[in-house]
Amino acid sequence: MSKDITEQELEKLVAYLDGEVSEQEAIEVEQALSNDESTRERVDGLERAWEMLDRLPISKASEEFTDKTLSSIRTVQLEAQAADDQQPSGFGMTKKTRAQLRKAAISAGWIVGLACSIFLGYLITNQWVPDESDPLIRELSFIENLDTYSEVQSLEFLEELTKSGTFDETAQQ
Amino acid sequence: MNSPYLRDPDVQLMLRAKAGDEGAFTDLVAAYQDRIVGIFCHLLGNQEAAEDLAQEVFLRIYRSRDKYEPKAKFSTWLFRIANNLASNSRRNKGRRREVALNPQDSGPLGMRPEEQLLMEKSGMMPSRQIGLKETQAVVRQALETLNERQQMAVLLHKFEGMSYADIGAAMKLSEAAVKSLLSRARENLRVQLEKHING
Lengths: 173, 199
What we know:
The structure holds 2 protein chains of 2 kinds.
Chain A: H1 7-17, H2 23-35, H3 37-52, H4 65-86, H5 95-128, H6 134-138, H7 140-144, H8 146-151, H9 155-164, H10 166-172
Chain B: H1 9-18, H2 22-44, H3 47-63, H4 74-96, H5 113-121, H6 127-144, H7 148-159, H8 164-171, H9 175-198
Helix pairs in contact in B: 1-2, 2-3, 2-4, 2-7, 3-4, 4-8, 6-9, 7-9, 8-9
């Protein structure tokens, strides 16, 4: 008949059987085993009860388990993918719609960028390359009065007319 | 990544599965399916329920593969998931109080004592099988007297050969708690099986 032992002693005995004790604890248990018949009986009982668990039948997975598991994983995968596509995100849009909008926004960005580049190019070209008609526009009033100016003999003659006030009288009339 | 668990070949398989290698995941299922189903059979006493739960374990692992980081041995992580699922399943089962009374539903662990008695009385059981079946029924009954955590610790230690530290990691317990749990469990088993041991 085994004597009553404390919980700590029991833990030490079981840990000894499981190989989970320190060297010092192992020595203590082994000393108790060699000196105490009831400890030997207790350890023997613990060991034999543990060995009886080996009589339990060992069950294995059925032959179709792997296929069933992998196919259920594939189903979950597809469902998750479908849910991902259908699930509304920001502003009540589906992911698909969002992706389409994103593509459209990128395309629009490219178009705007291209237009800006063209406009900028035009401005730069316009500023740097001189236009042949610019001098004509600048001198338009001169060209229009060229016939009148041709009748003037010399610059001194015009200065004499200015001094005499002829132009002022003409302007007053 | 510098994890001490990278040397675990199953961790390597899981990392390959994370990277999208479906074959690696299949290898993991093949490597662990019998072990998981075996443990669940002992816990639930029903092959079909055990396989359903085992399937759920692999599904959970698959779902969390993207976030997987090797912070423990792969087996420890897997048995932690198994332990959680088993606890939840038994909690739900407890609520429903489902009892299978059909003798054909005895499960893989052999007949229950009342079924066995019925079979013996009706002379349906071959005499050579009685000894083994009786022992199995007795051991199973003894196992069922343990609480949920004791059962899991016993099964992981006995059939998976897991150390106290690994059992602690799988069951979220300290090593001291595992030591206490297992010592009580083994003492309970000894008391339950005492007369069969001496007999």
